[in-house]
Amino acid sequence: MQRDLDFVSGKFFDYEIPKNQRYLLKYFKTDLQRAFLRYFLVFNSHRNFSDHTGFRCHDRRLWTYQARYRKLVSVYEEAKKSLTEEGLETIHLIESGKYRLT
User: Fold this and answer.
1) Secondary structure in 3-state letters for 24-72
2) Whole-prediction pTM value?
3) CA-wise closest residue to 40 among 30, 29, 52
4) Are 62 and 46 in contact (CB under 8 A)?
5) Domain segments of the chain: what residues?
6) Judging by beta carbons within 10 Å of its beta carbon (0-12, 13-18, 19+), is residue 59 exposed, middle or buried?
7) Which of 15, 38, 40, 95 has fewest C-beta within 10 Å?
8) DSSP assigned state of 14
9) Which residues of 16-46 are buried (b: 16+ CB within 10 A; e: fewer)?
C-alpha cells in the first residue's frame, strides 16, 4: 500500500537522499544514476524504473547500478561495525569518493 502511495505521489522524483547515505552521490553522478538512486531508495527495486521515470536504459545497466549500490552500502556498514584502523580508512575512502569497487 505504501509503495503505491509513493508511486502515485511521485516521491521518487524529488526524494532527498538521507544524510547518512549522501556519500553515495559521489558514486552516482549523472542524472540517470541519481534518478536510479532515488528510485531504488524509495522502492528497493528497479523493476519499473524506466516506465515510471521516463529514463531509457537497458536492464543490464540498472543491475550494474544496483550491484554498485549494494556493494558500497555493504562495505560501508562493515567498516562502521569493525571500527579498526583499516575500517576507518575504508570509511574515509568511501566518503571521499575514492573507494575503488572491485
Assistant:
1) HHHCCCCHHHHHHHHHHHHHCCCCCHHHHHCCCCCHHHHHHHHHHHHHH
2) 0.80
3) 52
4) yes
5) 2-96
6) exposed
7) 95
8) S
9) eeeeeeebbeebbeeebbebbbbbbbbbeeb
Burial class (CB in 10 A: 0-12, 13-18, 19+), 65: buried
How many of the other CB atoms lie within 10 Å of CB of 73? 14
Residue linked to cell 552500502: 73
Residue 17: the pLDDT is 82
Phi/psi of residue 55, each to 5°? -75, 130
Q: pLDDT (tens digit, 9 = 90+) per residue, 6-21?
A: 544 455 556 778 898 9
Q: Tell me the per-residue pLDDT of 17-64, one tens digit each, with 9 for 90 and over.
A: 889 899 999 999 999 999 999 888 888 777 777 766 778 888 899 999
Q: How far is CA 96 from CA 22, 23, 50, 89, in A?
A: 11, 7, 30, 11
The answer to whether residues 57 and 50 touch, using CB atoms and an 8 Å cutoff, is yes
